[in-house]
From TrEMBL, chain B:
This protein's UniProt keywords: Cell membrane, Membrane, Transmembrane, Transmembrane helix
UniProt region (Disordered), positions on chain: 1-30
UniProt keyword Membrane, yes or no: yes
Protein name, per record: ABC transporter permease
Membrane topology note: Multi-pass membrane protein
Compartments in which it is found: Cell membrane
TM region(s), chain numbering: 49-75, 95-116, 128-145, 151-172, 181-199, 231-251, 281-301, 307-326, 359-378
Organism name: Streptomyces spiramenti
Biased composition (Low complexity): 1-15
Domain of life, per lineage: Bacteria
Pfam families: BPD_transp_2
Length: 487, 408
């Protein structure tokens, strides 16, 4: 993908675009050939308008004035993108930003679009709208390369599927004749592990208790507003509590409050009986809170440091990393070797930098690190975001394993299947409040989606599943395996 | 003390200087030829060595070519200049001079480097060491306790004053979010005025002809010297060596050092890992200032014996250049400090034999720039290269696995 967009040079092999063999030295070569890319992480300047963002770097095409504006509206109408050129980018939502990115690429004359994990940040309804846009593009004769980990989406939108695993093409298949399970097996490279029957490991020993948590913050305009309000939950030993919600509704802040990176205005946080409401992050970690951050590059790793230093990060006060004030480097290195082995971190050694590992392997390292300090509570924020299917399955297994060993897990995810498949109970977060709760055994992703947009509140899924013979515990395992296969 | 004789090399020095850093506190590798050969056959060691050598080589080549061009442009012969510099700089007397000069440079570089390692730009070393040396001189001049008690008191005073002066900037940064670049540079100006106010006859100073200075330290408070036959090396070289070792140990072997470096690499990751970034900002500024306080000690204890209006200034800024040149590495900075002193020593001589003295300033600038640029280039190249190697190695392993699976 990086090679196609000219960001990296191939060692061998050829690229043929529109019947001609080409080679790209830089992204601009690729654009000149009509290939454009929409990155997973948006590359937009928040404080510029949509129009300014689109013309930025492409001023030569239609200038920056009325002509450019005309062209933007033309493209927007032709493909049904519905872009408003005069709005500041910081004022528009994620889905709109994505459309701006697509427009940016089209504006530069692209005939082939590469979309890298475009749905990772979208809610189900927005995904459908995106797919409509893509079909529109297709109908106009454009080519779209859609890169995704989510099999259901690939199957629904693609005309042809190529499976790539560890850098080589494994198979090319036709979506109409392929089941999700077959596709998943191609991606993982072996038969998917059959999820074992799920028995509840929930005990009645409370591990993490959050009582009436309040947090306010000042936004960019200096206005003080409530970020979290009346957050109240208890996670017991061996329980996974899932939090669903559209991103930006306070999940990140909740994690930061629990981890001690933000000091709550009110309420209490207790871990295994110890009051940690206002304790420092380090003390919380020493008290047995393991943390898998949402953004592992910003919060979980020192990218330019070797793996063994990353193994020490966050647990520097504990064995085997230090004794007193003194670091015990050889113990830490030996333990890094163990983590690499036990958690199947694919790396040539522990002296390479964290940046040279793939996302999945970085995540496995983080997971191994956090689990190596006998945590009582595990905070997992989007644990499988941006990781490959193999690592994903492994991380899910490890979360189940952790649950079996009696950890209390707080799982925050945008992936509803993941939430439903792993959680013992579910809460929905909307505008900084926990507005609804649900039993994962009986809830459907659609019902959850409704609560995530604030339409429904309270106890979900209770009345429609009232039918006899459908006790929650019974359907649990079946659903669990079903969700599993869907990827 | 052996650095004295080692310092001989001209620019070749800085080559060695920077060879070590990526090996971070390695140095123990050179035990025997056979062992070394065995190590060299390991591709990973070779890789490390390649990276370590390519940056200084690139920097030196670029700097050398540029300096040649500049000298040629002034209508003079560059090679003759280098030869003269080398000959003069390697005389015994020059070597002693260079070592003595390098001591405060090195201390200043260590002070700056502590900030650099956590992304703090302490430009205020200059003001910190002057205020520190001034008050240390005042305290030392007022007491007469005998060397064993008084010298530690003087040094301690300097460290405390330096730490407090830098701590102001650290506090403002941590509590009010004021950029340390601005506060430290302003504190430099304030330091000048503060000293100017007290350094007057009748306040804390006395006049001796044209020079106003603090009362002389008693003879017993002078630091020892080492007689090499060609001149006296300041005993305060011991302070510099101790500071270098302490710097290395603190950063690479203690929890505090790990936290500090973590903040330097990524403050968000450090914060999430449980480091209080604010506290680290204050702590590292205090330490940086304390080391800065030592910068004036060689001059005060070994040379002038008082703080006068002719006390050397500007060493803090040289510390920045030397820390950059030595890549914040304790050994690298030592070699860089010696190189700097060597250039200064030979600058006067160049002037004497008919070259422009300013050439030395140009050389220093070119060296720092080429080192900084080439290290950044090599660092990026190395990172990309490593990613590629890791990818290739994993792909090879995966292929092997696949064929094994296929065979079964």
């Amino acid at each position: 993908m990086k090679i196609l967009y000219g960001m990296q040079k191939p060692d061998e092999g050829t690229i043929t675009a529109e019947g001609e063999q080409v080679s790209f030295g830089s992204p601009s070569d690729a654009i000149a050939r009509g290939i454009g890319m929409v990155h997973q992480h948006f590359m937009l300047a928040d404080n510029l308008t949509v129009q300014e963002n689109v013309v930025l770097g492409a001023e030569k095409r239609h200038g920056i004035g009325a002509a450019a504006r005309r062209r933007i509206l033309e493209i927007s109408d032709a493909y049904g993108l519905g872009v408003r050129p005069d709005v500041l980018v910081e004022e528009i939502g994620v889905a709109d930003r994505q459309r701006v990115e697509i427009l940016k690429v089209l504006y530069r004359g692209a005939r082939t679009l590469i979309l890298d994990e475009p749905t990772a940040v979208l809610v189900p309804q927005e995904v459908d709208a995106l797919f409509d846009n893509l079909r529109e593009l297709k109908a106009e004769g454009l080519t779209v390369i859609f890169i995704s980990h989510k099999l259901g989406e690939v199957l629904s939108v693609a005309d042809e599927i190529t499976v790539i695993r560890r850098g080589t093409t494994v198979a090319s298949v036709d979506p109409t004749g392929t089941s999700p399970r077959e596709l998943a097996e191609l991606m993982v490279g072996s038969e998917l592990p059959v999820p074992e029957t799920r028995e509840s490991t929930v005990t009645d020993v409370p591990m993490l208790q959050v009582r009436d948590l309040h947090l306010s913050g000042t936004d960019a305009d200096g206005v003080k507003r409530e970020v979290l309000a009346e957050i109240d939950f208890t996670i017991h030993r061996g329980e996974v509590l899932g939090i669903a919600g559209v991103e930006g509704n306070g999940q990140a802040e909740l994690v930061e409050a629990v981890m001690g990176m933000r000091d709550p205005d009110g309420g209490a946080i207790t871990v295994d009986g110890a009051d940690l409401s206002h304790a420092s992050t380090r003390r919380r970690r020493e008290h047995g809170i393991g943390y898998i951050p949402e953004d592992r590059h910003r919060h979980g790793l020192l990218l330019t440091a070797p793996l063994w230093e990353n193994r020490m990060l966050g647990h520097i006060t504990e064995r085997p990393n230090s004794r007193g004030q003194r670091l015990t480097l050889s113990d830490a290195k030996a333990d890094t070797e163990r983590i690499v082995r036990e958690y199947d971190v694919r790396t040539p050694g522990i002296n390479v930098t964290a940046a040279s590992l793939s996302g999945g392997n970085q995540q496995k390292l983080i997971f191994g690190r956090e689990m190596s300090h006998t945590p009582k509570v595990l905070i997992a924020a989007h644990p499988t975001r941006g990781v490959d299917v193999g690592a994903q399955a492994q991380i899910w297994d490890q979360i189940r394993e952790a649950r079996r060993e009696g950890l209390a897990v707080l799982l925050i995810s945008a992936d509803l299947d993941e939430l439903i498949g792993l959680s013992d109970s579910l809460r929905v977060m909307y505008r900084g409040r926990l507005v609804a709760e649900a039993d994962p055994a009986t809830i459907t992703p659609e019902q959850l989606g409704g609560a995530m947009t604030g339409e429904t509140t309270g106890r979900l899924g209770g009345d429609d599943i009232d039918a006899p013979g459908a006790p929650g515990a019974g359907t649990g395992p079946a659903r669990d395996s079903g969700e599993e296969d869907a990827r | 003390m052996s650095e004295g004789s080692d310092s001989s090399g001209s620019s070749g020095n800085s080559g060695n200087a920077v060879e070590t850093p990526p090996g971070a506190a390695g140095g123990g590798d050179r035990t025997g030829g056979g062992f070394l050969a065995a190590k060299l056959s390991d591709p990973r060691v070779r890789e490390k060595l390649l990276l370590a050598v390519s940056a200084p080589l690139l920097a030196l080549t670029v700097a050398f070519v540029l300096v040649c061009l500049v000298i040629t442009a002034t209508g003079q012969n560059p090679f003759h200049a280098f030869e003269a510099m080398f000959d003069y700089g390697t005389t015994d007397r020059s070597q002693v001079w260079i070592v003595n000069k390098a001591i405060p440079y090195y201390l200043a570089a260590v002070a700056v480097a502590i900030g650099f390692r956590m992304n703090l730009f302490n430009i205020g070393v200059d003001g910190q060491y002057q205020v520190a040396a001034f008050f240390a001189a005042v305290v030392g001049g007022a007491l007469a306790l005998g060397g064993f008690v008084q010298i530690p008191i003087i040094i301690l005073t300097a460290m405390v004053v330096g730490a407090l002066w830098a701590g102001i900037a650290g506090y403002l940064k941590a509590v009010r979010g004021v950029s340390e670049v601005i506060t430290t540079i302003m504190l430099n100006a304030i330091a000048g005025s503060l000293i100017g106010y007290f350094l007057k006859e009748g306040r804390l100073a006395e006049r001796n002809q044209n020079i106003v200075h603090t009362p002389d330290l008693p003879e017993s408070s002078r630091f020892f010297t080492i007689d090499t036959g060609a001149g006296l090396i300041y005993g305060s070289v011991v302070i510099a060596i101790a500071a270098g070792i302490a710097y290395w140990y603190l950063l690479s072997r203690t929890r505090f050092g790990f936290d500090l470096r973590a903040v330097g690499v990524s403050d968000s990751a450090a914060e999430a890992s449980g480091v209080s970034v604010k506290r680290m900002v204050i702590a590292s500024m205090l330490i940086s200032g304390a080391v800065a306080g030592l910068v004036g000690m060689p001059t005060l204890l070994n040379d002038t014996g008082n703080f006068g209006n002719n006390f050397p200034s500007g060493i803090g800024f040289m510390g920045i250049a030397i820390a950059l040149l030595g890549r914040n590495h304790p050994v690298g900075m030592a070699l860089a400090a010696l190189l700097w002193a060597f250039l200064e020593r030979t600058g006067g001589h160049l002037n004497f034999i008919g070259y422009y003295q300013e050439i030395i300033g140009v050389m220093q600038g070119i060296i720092v720039l080429s080192v900084v640029v080439s290290y950044e280039l090599v660092r990026r190249w190395g990172l990309r290269r490593q990613q590629r190697i890791v990818g290739a190695e994993l792909a090879a392993r995966a292929r092997k696995n696949d064929t094994v699976e296929g065979a079964v």
